[in-house]
């Protein structure tokens, strides 16, 4: 599941596209006003922006130019402009993909997954659930329930996998310790926060290059933990 922001002045396309992506288990925020984009990027923290080029008041080029001054969120352009010059201009401004109208939703879905995989280091299965994520040179495969570093399989206990899954589906957001306890052990288990810390310690020793200076499983002091994906800066 990814959080996707759609910006398009075609309200019919906006509604249909939002409904389609929500059926694919994505969280969707939408607006028909390009001027709202930067505010919504900081407010909603999307994993991907789908941006129309031709809009009144502020076109997609101007919106993208402003956005790139303040954010490196992945952007796909949705446009009827098909010339090579327009495409090159889009890439020069920093778009991650460019799809021309009319397009099929199936093609758009494939392109969305490709951009997310390339920029965020995670891949979803056909139901929209997390399939794999990368943490440095370690790949976690949630469908096969294994982790590996190159050809080396890293043994993970079921609880360790559940804990990683609970963190991964937040797309890098911090998760409170008590929330992790409920999601991993259930509402009817009275685990202490020390249990979370113990499993985090074990995971770091299996995944991190230097467990004492973790780069991927991060502590949010006084709150909980989060995963750092590959697209984030240190």
Index terms:
single chain, alpha/beta, Rossmann fold, 2 domains, 5-stranded parallel sheet, 5-stranded antiparallel sheet, 13 strands, 40% helix
Would you give an account of this structure?
- The chain has 8 helices and 13 strands.
- It has helices at 11-23, 37-44, 60-70, 84-93, 105-120, 158-168, 177-185, 193-207; strands at 3-7, 27-31, 48-52, 75-79, 97-100, 122-124, 130-135, 138-141, 146-149, 152-154, 175-176, 217-220, 224-227.
- The chain is elongated.
- It has 2 domains: 3-120, Response regulator (Rossmann fold, 3-Layer(aba) Sandwich), CATH 3.40.50.2300; 130-227, Orthogonal Bundle (Arc Repressor Mutant, subunit A).
- The protein is 40% helix and 23% strand.
- The mean pLDDT is 83.
- It is of the alpha/beta class and 234 residues long.
- Helix 6 (158-168) packs across helix 7 (177-185).
- The strands form 3 sheets. A 5-stranded parallel beta sheet has the order 2-1-3-4-5, sandwiched between helices. It has a 5-stranded antiparallel beta sheet with strand order 6-7-8-9-10.
């Amino acid at each position: 599941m990814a959080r996707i922001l759609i910006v398009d002045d075609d309200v019919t396309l906006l509604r249909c596209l939002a409904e389609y992506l929500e059926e694919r288990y994505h969280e969707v925020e939408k607006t028909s006003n390009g001027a709202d984009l930067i505010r919504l990027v900081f407010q909603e923290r999307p994993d991907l922006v789908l941006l129309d080029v031709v809009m009144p008041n502020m076109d997609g080029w101007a919106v993208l130019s402003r956005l790139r001054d303040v954010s490196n969120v992945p952007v796909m352009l949705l446009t009827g402009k098909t010339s090579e010059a327009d495409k090159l201009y889009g890439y020069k401004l920093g778009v991650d993909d460019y799809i021309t109208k009319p397009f099929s939703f199936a093609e758009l879905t494939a392109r969305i997954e490709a951009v997310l995989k390339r920029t965020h280091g995670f891949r979803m299965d056909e139901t929209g659930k997390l399939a794999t994520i990368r943490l440095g040179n370690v790949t976690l495969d949630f469908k096969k329930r294994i982790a590996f570093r190159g050809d080396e399989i890293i043994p993970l206990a079921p609880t360790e996998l559940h804990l990683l899954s609970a963190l991964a589906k937040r797309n890098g957001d911090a998760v409170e310790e008590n929330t992790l306890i409920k999601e991993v052990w259930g509402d009817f288990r009275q685990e202490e926060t020390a249990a979370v810390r113990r499993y985090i310690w074990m995971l770091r020793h299996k995944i991190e290059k230097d467990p004492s200076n973790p780069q991927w499983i991060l502590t949010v002091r006084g709150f909980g933990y989060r995963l750092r994906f590959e697209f984030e800066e240190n």
